[in-house]
């Protein structure tokens, strides 16, 4: 699955799990969790893509540590991480026992394919609905410091896409609109990146406004001291 689907399904799984255990995982972490297994792209050629970080033998102990250390927040984040494996096993396969075995598990519906496109674009639509219902949409529509952290999943999605394409000699601009399925997924990526970018700008705006208010308050206090 592409990063659009991974980040969006992660958001949905993490938020649902968080609701069950009565914790509100921040939006940027909910989106980032599903991208985490693809961080192996950053370490190529030291780590081959789709091996260690897509193995249950590796990820389950990591999730266990997160749950022990961060309790409910760790559980919600772990749900997002594991959603990556679920998604990849639907459209392709995963090596659940790597490095002990190269055994591949999955139903391989195809990538890209009508099924994958429906899952990715559908997940984005669901995220927009859920974000509206839980109030995360305010990170985009209002000046809020929390919005600046959405730059983290945004940068991750962009850089991982570029690096993966470069490593595999994939011409992104030519591939992006070469098929209807890829066109829809490309537009979905652009929509998500645009939303995250707006939220990050709102976060920067909030930081600037807070700094100005603090500066004005400090200036006012200094004037009062001089008058005294």
Question: What's a concise summary of this model?
Answer:
This protein is mainly α.
Keywords:
228 residues, mainly alpha, 0% strand
Structural class: mainly alpha
Mean pLDDT: 92
Please mark out the parts with pLDDT under 50 across 5 or more consecutive residues, or reply none.
none
Largest sheet: none
Distance between the termini: 67 Å
Estimated share of beta-strand residues: under 5%
According to DSSP, the number of beta strands is: 0
Helix-strand sequence: HHHHHHHH
Tell me the helix content: 55-70%
Shape: globular
Cα gyration radius (Å): 20 Å
Counted by DSSP, the helix tally is 8
Structure write-up:
The chain is mainly α. 68% of the residues lie in helices and 0% in strands. The protein is built from 8 helices and no strands. The protein has helices spanning 3-20, 27-33, 56-91, 114-134, 138-141, 151-167, 172-176, 180-227. α1 packs across α4 (114-134), α2 packs parallel to α6 and α6 runs antiparallel to α8. The longest helix is centred in the last third of the chain and has 48 residues, at 180-227. It is globular. It starts with a helix and ends with a helix. The model has no long low-confidence stretch (mean pLDDT 92).
